[in-house]
Design goal:
The chain has helices at 38-48, 112-123, 131-164, 171-207, 213-279, 282-290, 295-332; strands at residues 2-8, 11-16, 30-34, 67-69, 75-84, 89-99, 102-107. The chain has a 7-stranded mixed beta sheet with strand order 2-1-3-7-6-5-4. The chain is of the alpha+beta class. A hairpin with a 4-residue loop joins strand 5 and strand 6 (89-99). The longest helix has 67 residues, at 213-279. It is elongated and about 120 Å long. The chain is built from 7 helices and 7 strands; from the N terminus they run βββαββββαααααα.
Length: 338
């Protein structure tokens, strides 16, 4: 898709371009290409006298080659823009070229920031006057979009926090919580990377003295907005780590409870196992035979005795656990000795 934007009564007017002839009568300040084919890039580049990059190759650049100036004065910037969806979040690479006061943008897919910029420029007179205004407003809108995404992360983590603060969490709930925390951490990391990339691009424009005095003020405001986002991303990283540690702690508590139950069961059945081992020996049958006790009666009494031993062991464990709990409460001053 290829759209050209020209100024009309102080507003941007969007024109869908299908062929080279459609560009003949236009004086655009912004040419936006979304997933262009090689043929489209070729005839657009021939018409304006520049080489447009392939959007599939934008992620193959080294970090040092993302912002540069050609010998003919073309300014090239390759930036990442955040795309936050319900199912996933990712950074989309966008190539910008400032050529003869015209901004060219090339990307693989549509982005909310670009839709917002087109809406504002169409409805607000004097919002932009040249291609560099469009570029700065795109970076400003990207910072706003990142801030909105951070608010969503805050809201999601508040919901997760209420779940973590419950007195009991099952393993299934803990797995779901960990999944939500991981998604928040991934989005927070992408936002931090995105604003870092935006800061680098704006700083490059300021250092290169490509901007007017008013545009320099706009660029400094964008940098201040980005600076404010850094504190939020750092706080969210700390909150995410806390929730992660708390959730893992609940998982460990659940595992310890299972081990404690198994230990209790083994303690209860240990004397029974000893008696069962003795009762299974032939000497037990010989001893009961001497007293003329029939073996069904002898073994029935043995089973009853074993059950009584198990019950007595269980009651003893309960007593000692309750006694230990009372001592712990009295040590903390939460209970008074009886």
């Amino acid at each position: 898709m290829l759209n050209a934007f020209e100024l009309h009564n102080g507003r941007l007017r969007q024109i869908l371009v299908d062929s080279r002839e459609d560009l003949a009568n236009l004086k655009p300040i912004w040419v936006d290409l979304v997933a262009p084919t090689a043929d489209v890039r070729a005839w657009v580049g021939d018409f304006f006298g520049l080489d447009l990059p392939d959007p599939d190759d934008l992620t193959d650049l080294e970090s040092s080659a993302r912002h540069y100036v050609e010998d003919n004065g073309e300014v090239h910037l390759h930036s990442d823009f955040l795309l936050d969806l319900e199912t996933e979040s990712r950074n989309v690479a966008v190539a910008f070229i400032l050529h003869k006061d015209i901004l060219f943008s090339v990307r693989k897919e549509e982005l909310p920031v670009f839709r917002l910029q087109r809406l504002r420029a169409r409805t607000q007179p004097g919002y932009v006057t040249e291609g560099k205004d469009v570029l700065l407003d795109l970076y400003a809108a990207d910072a706003e979009y990142s801030a909105d995404a951070l608010e969503d992360v805050y809201a999601d983590l508040e919901t997760v926090g209420r779940k973590v603060l419950n007195p009991r969490i099952t393993d299934e709930e803990a797995a779901q919580i960990l999944s939500e925390i991981a998604r928040g951490e991934d989005l927070n990391g992408r936002i931090r990377r995105n604003v870092l990339d935006t800061r680098r691009a704006v700083s490059f424009l300021m250092r290169g003295k490509f901007l007017s005095a008013d545009q320099q003020d706009d660029a400094r405001q964008i940098l201040r907005d980005i600076e404010s986002l850094d504190g939020h991303t750092t706080f969210l990283f700390g909150k995410i780590n806390f929730l992660m540690d708390a959730t893992v702690g609940f998982i460990n508590i659940n595992q310890n409870q299972r081990v404690s139950k198994l230990t209790t069961i083994s303690v209860i059945f240990m004397p029974i196992n000893i008696l069962a081992g003795i009762g299974g020996m032939s000497e037990f049958s010989m001893m009961t035979k001497e007293f003329s006790v029939p073996w069904p009666v002898a073994y029935a009494g043995f089973v009853v005795g074993s059950a009584l031993v198990g019950w007595a062991t269980y009651q003893a464990l309960k007593y000692f656990e309750a006694r230990q709990a009372r001592r712990a409460f009295m040590a903390k001053g939460l209970a008074k000795p009886a």
